Amino acid sequence: MSRSPRLVAVSNRVGPVKGAAAAGGLAVALVGALRERGGIWFGWSGRTVGAGKARLHTEKADGITLATIDLSQHDYDGYYNGFSNNCLWPLLHFRIDLIKFERAQLETYWSVNRRFAQSLAKLLRPDDLVWVHDFHLLPLAEELRRQRMRQRIGFFLHTPFPPTEILSTLPVHESLTRALFAYDLIGFQTEDDLARFRDHVVRACGGRARGEKVSAFGREIRVGAFPIGIDVDQFKRYAFTAPGNKEYARMRKVLRGRDQFIGVDRLDYSKGLLRRMDAFGRYLESHPRAHGKVILLQVAPVSRGSIESYRNFRQELDREAARVNGRFARFDWTPVHYLNRALPRRTLAGLYRASRVGIVTPMRDGMNLVAMEYLAAQDAANPGVLVLSRFAGAAQYLREALLVNPYDGEETAEAMHLAREMTLQERRRRHEALMRRLEAHNVDRWRRDFVNALADAPAWLKATRKKS
Ligand code: ADQ
């Protein structure tokens, strides 16, 4: 048994342990870290039950304890669909126009966080390191402190952090920011997100920010940028061994020499799918020689389908894809292939590999793992080209991609053209540089850097005493 402190990961959903590799990104990273330290993964069970019937379940899998609690339908609606996805998600992606703020939902959000804290507190040991993930759980540390928990607690935000002017539109921004100061370490995806957090603390909360130390509300905490990455070797393997290899060969056969552009995104308005369709239409408009020779494969599984803004968005996208096809299709060529389905990761890897261009054009994104997966799946001897939005966190690291402003349809269309025409030499030069960056920022480094920084953060009691 390792002598280092035990790690306790907390996220809205608890991912599979056995099939973690298949589930991808976060599950792989967390399971690796939890196995190393014999830890607990805590979160919602994914089940909704009658009010008063919620239970804590624990099970062991591969040396990791999975601890989950149920939620009532009312709690799920208020906490998950309501405040998390109808208010915080658009806010964090700079979409004030889509925010639906309801005090009753905020209360449910907070009470679910309290319930999480009460159940989790019973499982914690004094020297555990607690690592909380994402915007569903902003007040969790504050609620754990109420339960007299003194452990080191870190928080990682997977989404962007918005400018203070946007955040301040949320009526309760101050109590949420105050709650963040119950953590000992807060991690962001990029330096820009970190800078916006610092700015918010100074300008909206009267706090101070000096390097990695930020203070406000009578407490000093540590902050940092910890860019998430992927397991590069694993994804390469997926693309070049069965069944990914087989999917690749099958796709090539189906394509019959045509070039494929690929987009893979949850069906979410932040991913820029509407403007991407429009840009592809513009590309076809201005490059008639591409007709019959290029297709756009857009894989977009339905996400958060019970929320109205998502349903509306899906209808608009259906219309936009149909518009481009209606305008340009011929009896022997359909330019847009559009699937609303999740695919196994190995299949995805084969499809990425078979695609000449990867199109990743979110309007705003915390990082974007698809951009990295596309690169890792390329054949280094004859790689495809990544077209990447400047507003994805990944653009701060993947500088050799063709960077575009997704609000500029003409620029995006032109990048599609440049990507398809790029010489082999140029493609290889860019791909080589990008792979070096991917390897430097792989997912192991992300979780090691975060967990080490959390272990080094001053303990709760010490930090509080110093202030008083
Ligand atoms: P997401 O918004 O979900 O993640 P992203 O980073 O692109 O966005 O990750 C999506 C993952 O889902 C990828 O691993 C991708 O392969 C997978 N996926 C997408 N479509 C799929 C399909 N049709 N079938 C199977 N798998 C599919 C949030 C933030 C991001 C941040 C990540 C990680 O919004 O900004 O990069 O967390 O921190």
Instruction: Tally the helices.
Output: 18
Biggest sheet descriptor: 10 strands, mixed
Mean of the pLDDT scores?
93
**Oligomeric state as shown:** single chain
Helix content: 40-55%
Task: Give the termini separation.
Answer: 38 Å
Task: List the topology elements.
Elements: E1 7-13, H1 20-23, H2 25-37, E2 40-49, E3 56-61, E4 64-72, H3 73-92, H4 103-121, E5 129-133, H5 140-146, E6 152-156, H6 164-167, H7 173-180, E7 185-188, H8 191-205, E8 208-210, E9 213-216, E10 219-225, H9 232-240, H10 244-255, E11 259-264, H11 273-286, E12 294-299, H12 308-328, E13 336-339, H13 345-353, E14 357-360, H14 369-376, E15 385-389, E16 402-404, H15 409-421, H16 424-440, H17 443-456, H18 460-467
Parallel strand pairs: 1-2, 1-5, 2-4, 5-6, 6-7, 7-10, 11-12, 11-14, 12-13, 14-15, 15-16
Antiparallel strand pairs: 3-4, 8-9, 9-10
The site of adenosine-5'-diphosphate-glucose has 20 residues, from α14.
Give an account of the 3D structure.
It is a single chain. The chain is α/β, with parallel strands linked by helices and 468 residues long. The protein has 18 helices and 16 strands. The protein has helices at residues 20-23, 25-37, 73-92, 103-121, 140-146, 164-167, 173-180, 191-205, 232-240, 244-255, 273-286, 308-328, 345-353, 369-376, 409-421, 424-440, 443-456, 460-467, and strands at residues 7-13, 40-49, 56-61, 64-72, 129-133, 152-156, 185-188, 208-210, 213-216, 219-225, 259-264, 294-299, 336-339, 357-360, 385-389, 402-404. The strands form two sheets. The protein has a ten-stranded mixed β-sheet with strand order 3-4-2-1-5-6-7-10-9-8, sandwiched between helices. Strands 13-12-11-14-15-16 form a six-stranded parallel β-sheet, sandwiched between helices. Strand 14 (357-360), helix 14 and strand 15 (385-389) form a beta-alpha-beta unit. The protein is globular. The mean pLDDT is 93. The site of adenosine-5'-diphosphate-glucose has 20 residues, from helix 14.
